[in-house]
Specification:
Distance between the termini: 47 Å
Structural class: alpha+beta
Number of strands: 5
CATH topology: HIT family, subunit A
Strand content: 15-25%
Number of domains: 1
Largest sheet: 5 strands, antiparallel
Length: 122
């Protein structure tokens, strides 16, 4: 059995979250440390620790996260302006909760690359 995470506790309603979407496969809620005017986390209800742990049987639920993101973008009115979707993997990739989650960031123009302030000058 996988170790309980803050996300599994949100799914089980053991801790509160501002949930904006839920279905049988996924849950979306506001990030408590937003990096954009809109910063949502979209998670599968089935726990998968990292991107490295995704199996072929998980393809439908992982793909569903992206469908949920597009649906939320349409519903909240920022689909046409654009948004960023990010999934981090492990410590060096910036993952802090070991239950995969898709970050949906919107509400402002995003620079490219997203890590440009950390690049060394040539």
């Amino acid at each position: 059995m996988a170790e309980a995470t803050i996300f599994s506790q949100i799914i089980e309603r053991k801790i509160p979250a501002n949930i904006v979407y839920e279905d049988d496969i996924a849950l979306a809620f506001e990030d408590i440390n937003p990096q954009a005017p809109v910063h949502l986390l979209i998670i599968p209800k089935q726990p998968i620790a990292t991107v490295n742990d995704i199996q072929a049987a998980d393809c439908e639920s992982v793909g569903h996260l992206y469908l949920v993101a597009a649906k939320i973008a349409q519903q909240q009115g920022f689909a046409e302006d654009g948004y960023r979707l990010v999934m981090n993997c492990n410590e060096h990739g910036g993952q802090t909760v070991y239950h995969i989650h898709l970050h949906l960031l919107a509400g402002k123009a995003m620079g490219w690359p997203p890590y440009s302030n950390t690049l060394k000058k040539a």
